[in-house]
Design a protein that fits this description.
The protein is 96% helix and 0% strand. By secondary structure, it is an all-alpha fold.
Length: 112
C-alpha cells in the first residue's frame, strides 16, 4: 500500500504543475488578446478624434463659404446641416449592416 502512495505522489505533483502552467498560459494568451484589442481601439479613437477636429473645422469653413455665396452666412450653415441630416438618415437605415460588420470585426480580432 505504501508503494502505491509513493508512486502516486509524483504523478499528483506533475498534474498540479501542469494545471498551474496551463492556467498561466491561458492568462498570458488572454492578456495578449486584450492588449491587442486595446491598442487597436486606442489608435482608432485617436485617429477618429483628429479627423473629427479636421472635419469640424472644414465644416465651418464650408458653411461660411457657402453663406458668402448665398448672401447670408446662416444659409451656408443650413446647407451644411441639411447635408449632415441626410447622412444621418442614411446611417439610421444602414445601422444593422454597420453593427454586424463592427461585431464581426471585433470577434475576428479577438479570435486571431
Amino acid at each position: 500500500m505504501e508503494t502505491n502512495a509513493y508512486l502516486i505522489e509524483p504523478l499528483l505533483e506533475r498534474a498540479e504543475q501542469y494545471t498551474k502552467t496551463s492556467f498561466e498560459l491561458l492568462k498570458l494568451k488572454s492578456l495578449e488578446k486584450v492588449a491587442g484589442i486595446t491598442s487597436v481601439l486606442a489608435s482608432r479613437m485617436l485617429l477618429a478624434g483628429i479627423l473629427s477636429l479636421f472635419i469640424f473645422t472644414l465644416n465651418i469653413a464650408v458653411a461660411l463659404w457657402l453663406g458668402t455665396l448665398l448672401g447670408k452666412n446662416y444659409y451656408g450653415f443650413f446647407v451644411v446641416a441639411s447635408f449632415y441630416g441626410a447622412i444621418g438618415i442614411i446611417l439610421l437605415f444602414a445601422h444593422p449592416v454597420i453593427k454586424a460588420r463592427v461585431n464581426n470585426s471585433i470577434i475576428a480580432q479577438a479570435l486571431n
